[in-house]
Write a sequence for this structure.
């Protein structure tokens, strides 16, 4: 019920925005090249704050969480949830590590050999690191450029991914601002990013990149 | 016995052998190429022997391919091409694949159903020591990760994610590619069901297939070979590596076949040439060939009738029989030079010769060694066939022979030279040779008594096997532990009880990994105790945080507690697991019932230290270590020693018989030749191959048989005759030829056999006239004056 409502609201907003006369023709979609977007966000700041809202059909309340995201130079990202409970995930091209609230490595899901989780973590990595060209392999990508920014609409073409993800929307301007996953069963995860600048948090997250 | 009566007897013999042979052809002749069929049972315990047979039957059918390229796409495309061809082939039963979506679901459901009874070792320790908190923390972490809706759905029924965690650790231990060099330049991933490994600058795509038939099946070998050739044509730039019993079997069969034709044909041509030169007539040639043909037919038929099939190595070995069986014919025709009725002259000698050879082969036959039994039976019946043809048929077709005088002169010259060497000091000096040989034997390591002696292994194939083993951790085919017990559950309990020790082996580097069925299905005792632990830690207090976050409602929790208490007896059974897609893939871990007891195996991966495994099994009564290679090798050593002792006993027996028939001096002289020859052969083996193995020891039996024949020809002759030299000379030449060719064999065992024969017979041949003079003297015969 919640899901439908959110989608409906989003749709209404979109329709509404088209009727507001504005200086730029915001509603004329301009298809654009992926690498031009990638160029725009190459200035993606390394450290972000994120807020996540998960709307899950089987739960009466949505799950809210927040934390930090660090994009490291060597194609690795550190994803740290601070609330409701601290946990850290480090994703690299061939690695996937998780740490608990005491920053101890959890050995449980060593599923790097599982084809699906491998595909999904590499998709996640491609999106966060702005490596959009990679996405073409497993997704139909529609890129839209507007004066205010850009957005990508990804629909999976790979059966293994389809089992988990229906589609993904990414939008932003000089950096990724919003990421929405719609899972196969209709559950939606919305993540918004805000760039921050904190030496302290940067250093804290950076520790997870040291092997 | 009249000539015609003998002829009728011969015809009856031929009809009998031919009739059996004909019926064998009709029911289908079987040529065996599996070397394991030559080996004796190595285990004292028949249970272990059966366990090995059951495991190896499966394991032998496995084939691993790797396509290698610097381009990832080439390696994958190659693997896809190869797997599509393999899938179409009738020789391939199946390709090993990742679990399909449906199968994963089935496995997931099975483990979900039994989730309250299943804890991995680490989770059990965690739950015991730290309670439910690490579990709920992990649940929250998973629930809040972006793509978690499927897991969230599980939470009301499995808030600690026990089923998920158990499945994860299981797939971690069973599917993970644990490579010894787990560095950054070595990585692996699955792409469209194909395992792609990056290592040392190249990409390898792996395919594992299971054959439909035995790897020794020649049709399967041909069709796999065809697929490989097709691959190389289509992908000239992609390297293809492969390993599996089938490739070794194919190579062994091909080299055995070519050896049968070279050795058999080579000695046959040699025999024909010698007969033409020595007797200058077509009739002796034809008759000799008939006697050989009858011999081979008799040997072939007898082995087939007795063993149900004939092994290809028996044929390789048997083809050298030509060189021995021809001796009777040579003696006949050599004597035919001086007598119209040569049979009475040579009858005693060739009959005694046959008896002594058959005694030798009978000794071989008593070894509990199917390969040797086959060879012994083949040779003994072959000799009988050739012998019967000579005594029953040859007189029926009187033939006049005239050996060229020049040829005789050569043999007589040899005899003259020998005579001048036939002095007591020389003979006494010869006695030093056995002492030297004995000393060498004592001081040579016997590490060459190895199963690999029976198989020629091309280095390229061996290298590929090593490369593939470095990439993927495949279970060792010939070494593993067996655990048995009166019920499946007791076997599982025993498997669990050795986990710590096996982990110890990994820690000390003896092995890289091990697998057994209890990884997938814990024993019921374990499951019941895990159930009690889980039940104790699932309540509103331990799940407080989950309740607060709304991941589980109190109503759901109530229901959960209820369902836990109801599922007390819901244990995952071995049969449930075996029926699941996972159990089907790992069914080789469970041997089921053998001789009234249940058995399971523990596979070992990348063994680095065999002695550590042996000592573990020695100190642990539950574990039975099976090490086929080592067992066969030690068995070969035992048999080598045994056969040398048997030989000594046989010599003593023959000596006794001869001493009764002649006298002690003549008997000693007859036996001295073969003893010296054996000493020379032992020395030659140790000098050339730096080893003296079982197969050389077995060849000594033949050296003895033939050597004693030569001595008997002198001892049995009523007068000094140059035709004895002729017969012995011709016989020795054919023996050199056939066994000399045998020493060229690529199969180490056959090479050693050939070398022993070559050096042994050469010595006997050189010594026989020297000792012959002494025998004549001892019998009081005057020096040969026929020339």
């Amino acid at each position: 019920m919640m899901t439908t409502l959110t989608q409906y609201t989003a749709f209404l907003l979109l329709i509404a925005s088209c009727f507001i006369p504005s200086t730029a023709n915001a509603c004329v979609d301009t298809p654009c090249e992926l690498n031009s977007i990638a160029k725009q966000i190459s200035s993606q700041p390394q450290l972000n704050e994120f807020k996540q809202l998960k709307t899950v059909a089987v739960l009466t309340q949505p799950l809210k969480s927040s934390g930090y995201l660090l994009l490291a130079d060597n194609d690795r990202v550190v994803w740290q949830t601070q609330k409701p409970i601290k946990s850290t995930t480090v994703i690299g091209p061939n690695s996937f590590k998780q740490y608990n609230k005491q920053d101890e490595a959890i050995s449980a899901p060593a599923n790097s050999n599982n084809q699906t989780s491998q595909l999904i973590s590499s998709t996640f990595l491609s999106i966060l690191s702005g490596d959009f060209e990679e996405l073409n392999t497993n997704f139909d990508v529609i890129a839209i450029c507007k004066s205010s920014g850009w957005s990508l609409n990804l629909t999976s073409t790979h059966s293994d991914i389809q089992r988990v993800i229906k589609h993904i929307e990414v939008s932003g301007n000089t950096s990724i601002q919003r990421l929405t996953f719609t899972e196969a069963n209709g559950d939606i995860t919305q993540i918004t990013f805000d760039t921050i600048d904190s030496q302290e948090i940067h250093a804290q997250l950076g520790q997870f990149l040291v092997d | 016995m009249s000539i015609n009566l003998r002829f009728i007897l011969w015809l009856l013999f031929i009809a009998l052998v031919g009739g059996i042979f004909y019926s064998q052809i009709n029911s289908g002749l079987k040529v065996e190429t599996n070397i394991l069929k030559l080996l004796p049972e190595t285990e004292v315990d028949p249970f272990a022997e059966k366990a090995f047979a059951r495991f190896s039957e499966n394991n032998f059918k496995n084939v691993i391919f790797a396509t290698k390229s610097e381009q990832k796409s080439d390696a994958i495309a190659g693997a896809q091409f190869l797997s599509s061809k393999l899938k179409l082939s009738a020789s391939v039963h199946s390709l090993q694949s990742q679990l399909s979506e449906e199968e994963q679901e089935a496995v997931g459901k099975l483990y979900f159903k039994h989730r309250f009874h299943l804890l991995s070792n680490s989770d059990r320790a965690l739950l015991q020591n730290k309670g439910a908190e690490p579990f709920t923390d992990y649940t929250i972490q998973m629930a809040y990760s972006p793509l978690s809706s499927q897991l969230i759905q599980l939470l009301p029924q499995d808030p600690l994610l026990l089923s998920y965690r158990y499945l994860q650790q299981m797939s971690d231990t069973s599917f993970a590619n644990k490579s010894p060099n787990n560095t950054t330049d070595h990585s692996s991933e699955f792409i469209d069901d194909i395992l792609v490994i990056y290592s040392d600058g190249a990409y390898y795509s792996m395919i594992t297939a299971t054959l439909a038939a035995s790897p020794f099946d020649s049709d399967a070998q041909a069709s796999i070979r065809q697929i490989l050739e097709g691959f190389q044509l289509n992908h000239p730039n992609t390297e293809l590596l492969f390993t599996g019993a089938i490739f070794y079997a194919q190579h062994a069969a091909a080299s055995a076949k070519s050896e049968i034709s070279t050795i058999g044909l080579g000695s046959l041509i040699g025999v024909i040439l010698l007969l033409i030169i020595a007797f200058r007539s077509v009739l002796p040639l034809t008759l000799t060939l008939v006697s050989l043909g009858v011999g081979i037919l008799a040997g072939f038929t007898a082995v087939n009738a007795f063993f149900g099939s004939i092994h290809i190595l028996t044929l390789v070995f048997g083809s050298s029989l030509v060189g021995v069986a021809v001796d009777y014919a040579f003696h006949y025709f050599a004597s035919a030079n001086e007598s119209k009725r040569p049979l009475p002259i040579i009858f005693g000698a060739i009959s005694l010769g046959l008896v002594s050879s058959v005694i030798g082969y009978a000794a071989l036959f008593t070894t509990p060694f199917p390969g040797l039994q086959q060879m012994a039976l083949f040779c003994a019946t072959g000799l009988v066939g050739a012998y019967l043809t000579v005594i029953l048929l040859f007189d029926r077709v009187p033939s006049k022979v005239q050996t060229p005088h020049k040829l005789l002169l050569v043999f007589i010259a040899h005899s003259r030279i020998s005579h001048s060497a036939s002095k007591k000091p020389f003979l006494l000096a010869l006695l030093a040779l056995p002492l030297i040989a004995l000393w060498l034997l004592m001081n040579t390591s016997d590490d060459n008594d190895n199963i690999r002696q029976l198989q020629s292994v091309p280095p390229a194939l061996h290298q590929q096997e090593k490369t593939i083993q470095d990439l993927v951790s495949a279970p060792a085919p010939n070494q593993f532990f067996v655990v048995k017990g009166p019920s499946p559950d007791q076997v599982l309990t025993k498997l669990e009880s050795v986990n710590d020790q096996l982990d110890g082996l990994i820690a000390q580097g003896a092995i890289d990994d091990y697998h057994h069925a209890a990884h997938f299905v814990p024993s019921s005792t374990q499951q019941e105790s895990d159930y009690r632990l889980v039940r104790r830690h699932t309540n509103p207090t331990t799940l407080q945080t989950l309740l607060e976050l709304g991941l589980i409602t109190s109503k759901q929790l109530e229901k959960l507690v209820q369902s836990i208490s109801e599922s007390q007896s819901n244990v995952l059974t071995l049969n449930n697991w075996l029926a699941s897609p996972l159990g089907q893939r790992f069914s080789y871990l469970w041997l089921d019932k053998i001789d009234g007891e249940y058995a399971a195996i523990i596979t070992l991966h990348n063994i680095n230290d065999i002695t550590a495994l042996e000592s573990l099994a020695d100190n642990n009564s539950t574990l039975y270590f099976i090490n086929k290679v080592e067992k066969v090798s030690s068995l070969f050593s035992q048999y080598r020693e045994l056969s040398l002792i048997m030989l000594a006993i046989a010599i003593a027996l023959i000596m006794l018989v001869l001493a009764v028939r002649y006298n002690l001096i003549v008997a000693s002289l007859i036996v001295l030749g073969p003893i010296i020859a054996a000493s020379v052969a032992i020395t030659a083996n140790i000098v050339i191959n730096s080893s003296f193995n079982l197969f050389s020891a077995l060849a000594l039996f033949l050296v003895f048989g033939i050597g004693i024949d030569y001595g008997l020809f002198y001892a049995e002759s009523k007068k000094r005759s140059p035709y004895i030299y002729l017969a012995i000379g011709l016989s020795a030449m054919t023996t050199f030829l056939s066994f000399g060719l045998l020493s060229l064999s690529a199969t180490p065992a056959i090479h050693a056999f050939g070398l022993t024969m070559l050096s042994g017979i050469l010595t006997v041949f050189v010594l026989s006239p020297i000792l012959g003079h002494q025998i004549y003297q001892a019998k009081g015969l005057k020096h040969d004056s026929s020339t």
